[in-house]
């Protein structure tokens, strides 16, 4: 009845005090599953209800105490982990790219052949590059040289590119034609036409800090090199294979 006092509704379980939680934590470590028994929970609930810490609060119900211990039991149960073989199989749907130590370019990975841990403690994988034979296989550092395959950038998606973004861009010279990491340093947004994007992009390559520019997807020439925005947006590096 209104106005006769501030009692908690019966359907609202009383909260545990910090002292009660500390005691239950201690008891759980000491007795384990025995804390789930009705007799144990009834005795503990009675003790809590008579405590000065619970003055002005509703009496503690033993079911509430038992529920707390049940939740604690679930939290403490050992986690079931998948065997390593299953974790590796779960990556079968992912695509990766790896950086060649020969020219610094990033190439799509066809398969991972083997792995090893070197003296420094770093993990390396033996990579078969897509479109290349076994003579081009390389050992690659997993942490720094392997990542999920970059996402191709369409001409209509140029608004998603911003100054400071890291991208992977095609770079061609007399000796090489490879994809390299670069950073966008300048953008001049322009209206598109029937041929597609006409914005001007300037990138600075990560390896030698050389800058190159082009209009949309049309390669621009500079000192014998060309860059094309038929590029791929760079994704985060992958720390571990499995």
UniProtKB/TrEMBL annotation:
<protein>
    <submittedName>
        <fullName>Protein SAWADEE HOMEODOMAIN like</fullName>
    </submittedName>
</protein>
<keyword id="KW-0238">DNA-binding</keyword>
<keyword id="KW-0371">Homeobox</keyword>
<dbReference type="InterPro" id="IPR032001">
    <property type="entry name" value="SAWADEE_dom"/>
</dbReference>
<dbReference type="InterPro" id="IPR039276">
    <property type="entry name" value="SHH1/2"/>
</dbReference>
<feature type="region of interest" description="Disordered">
    <location>
        <begin position="1"/>
        <end position="22"/>
    </location>
</feature>
<feature type="domain" description="SAWADEE">
    <location>
        <begin position="95"/>
        <end position="209"/>
    </location>
</feature>
<dbReference type="GO" id="GO:0003682">
    <property type="term" value="F:chromatin binding"/>
</dbReference>
<dbReference type="GO" id="GO:0003677">
    <property type="term" value="F:DNA binding"/>
</dbReference>
<dbReference type="Pfam" id="PF16719">
    <property type="entry name" value="SAWADEE"/>
</dbReference>
């Amino acid at each position: 009845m209104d106005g006769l006092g501030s009692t908690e509704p019966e359907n609202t379980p009383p909260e545990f005090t910090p002292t009660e939680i500390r005691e239950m934590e201690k008891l759980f470590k000491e007795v384990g599953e025995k804390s789930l028994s009705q007799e144990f929970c009834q005795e503990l609930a009675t003790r809590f209800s008579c405590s000065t810490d619970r003055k002005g609060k509703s009496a503690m119900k033993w079911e509430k105490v038992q529920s707390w211990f049940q939740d604690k039991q679930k939290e403490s149960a050992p986690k079931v982990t998948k065997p390593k073989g299953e974790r590796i199989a779960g990556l079968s749907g992912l695509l990766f790219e790896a950086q060649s130590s020969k020219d610094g370019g990033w190439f799509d990975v066809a398969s991972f052949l083997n792995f090893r841990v070197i003296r420094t403690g770093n993990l390396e994988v033996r990579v078969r590059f897509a479109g290349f034979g076994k003579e081009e296989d390389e050992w690659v550092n997993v942490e720094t040289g392997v990542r999920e395959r970059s996402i191709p950038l369409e001409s209509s998606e140029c608004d998603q590119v911003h100054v400071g973004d890291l991208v992977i861009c095609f770079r061609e010279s007399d000796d090489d034609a490879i994809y390299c990491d670069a950073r966008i340093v300048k953008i001049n947004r322009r209206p598109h036409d029937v041929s597609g994007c006409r914005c001007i992009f300037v990138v600075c390559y990560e390896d030698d800090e050389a800058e190159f520019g082009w209009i949309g997807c049309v390669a621009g020439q500079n000192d014998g090199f060309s860059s094309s925005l038929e590029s791929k947006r760079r994704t985060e590096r992958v720390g571990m294979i499995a």
